[in-house]
Design a protein that fits this description.
Structural class: alpha/beta
Shape: globular
InterPro entries: Asp/Orn_carbamoyltranf_P-bd, Asp/Orn_carbamoylTrfase, Asp/Orn_carbamoylTrfase_sf, Asp_carbamoyltransf, Asp_carbamoyltransf_Asp/Orn-bd
Bound molecules: phosphoric acid mono(formamide)ester
Strand content: 5-15%
Number of strands: 9
EC number: 2.1.3.2
GO molecular function: amino acid binding; aspartate carbamoyltransferase activity
Largest sheet: 5 strands, parallel
Strand order of the largest sheet: 7-6-5-8-9
Family: Belongs to the aspartate/ornithine carbamoyltransferase superfamily. ATCase family.
Order of helices and strands: HEHEHEHEHEHEEHEHHEHH
Enzyme class: transferase
């Protein structure tokens, strides 16, 4: 692959190879913290939407692999003067970057940009479409906690309708032959989602029954376009994860959240901090390793392509 734009085009073997390499990078990160596989390459991070985890981990990942990393401050860029996304991308392309990491509020914007530039593009989240490195880091977290990434029963709960994390996870976990249960109020469940081979629930007790993994999602009010916004109190009562609701899952079920989380809205803060159940901090750690693996693999392909030209 030239780019990492989504989970959709990946084969199960691509996913397994990337996770195997990411496992090696977990070990590197816990010991030496440095390699030179991206030495001589330039990585530009362009975030048109806020980020803590994704932006910081892409920057750390690039630096640990020896790349020259530049973070574009999009709020201070000429986008503010009316320059378009494509003109901005073409301007940066003329400076010969090798890896472009892009987050954008519009679904499809990163794919469009990838068609215009000569380097490898990594999608760091586009609108409601995809967030592939999030799904890959979730997969690595699950594989390390459960010892496998197939034939697990996994619940994804909350604001499915607005979530690129849910979309990428549904695709990845489905490709790896897991049983996926989606739990959300009907207003936050996309219509026709059953076509993706998932089971749909609007009750936490039913949906969480005997699952191995519980993945909570943030209520994304910024994407609700003035439509239905549930009351936080009512939402927490029916769909917020606490230890009482978690008791319906398997006794060793793990609790995940991609972050940023709203404590007391979709998840109880004490449960989120319970290291016996919650793997939220491991997810963040896996984020660096997965992004190192993704950039390493794309750089290998880029070098092969350039050597052949
Ligand atoms: N999970 C995630 O994408 O977090 P950020 O928005 O902080 O990058």
């Amino acid at each position: 692959h030239r780019h990492l734009l989504g989970i959709e085009p990946l084969a199960p073997s691509d996913i397994t190879s990337l996770l195997d390499l990411a496992d090696d990078y977990v070990t590197l990160n816990r010991t030496a913290k440095h390699s030179d596989v991206l030495a001589g390459l330039t990585q530009i991070n362009m975030f048109f939407e806020n980020s803590t985890r994704t932006q910081a981990s892409f920057e750390i990942a690039g630096k640990r692999l020896g790349a020259d990393v530049m973070n574009m401050a999009m709020q201070a860029s000429s986008i503010k003067k009316g320059e378009t996304l494509i003109d901005t991308a073409m301007t940066l392309n003329a400076m010969h970057p090798d890896l472009l990491v892009v987050r954008h509020p519009q679904s499809g914007a990163v794919d469009l940009l990838a068609q215009k530039v000569n380097c490898a593009v990594l999608n760091a989240g586009d609108g409601r479409h995809e967030h592939p490195t999030q799904a890959l880091l979730d997969a690595l977290t699950i594989r390390r906690a459960k010892g496998r990434l197939h034939r697990l029963s996994i619940a994804i709960c909350g604001d499915i309708a607005h979530s690129r994390v849910a979309r990428s996870n549904i695709m990845l976990l489905g490709k790896m032959e897991n049983r996926i249960r989606l739990i959300a109020p009907p207003t936050l469940m996309p219509s026709g989602i059953e076509d993706f081979g998932v089971e749909v629930f609007d009750d936490m007790a039913e949906g969480l029954k005997d699952v191995d993994v519980v993945m909570m999602l943030r209520l994304q009010k910024e994407r609700m376009d003035g439509g239905f916004i549930p009351s936080e109190r009512e939402y927490y009562h029916r769909f917020g994860l606490d230890s009482e609701k978690l008791a319906h899952a398997k006794p060793d079920a793990i609790v995940m959240h991609p972050g940023p989380m709203n404590r007391g809205v979709e998840i109880d803060g004490t449960l989120a901090d319970d290291i016996n159940r919650s793997v939220i901090q491991e997810q963040v750690e896996m984020g660096v390793a997965v992004r190192m693996a993704a950039m390493d693999l794309l750089a290998q392909n880029l070098r092969t392509e350039r050597n052949a030209a």
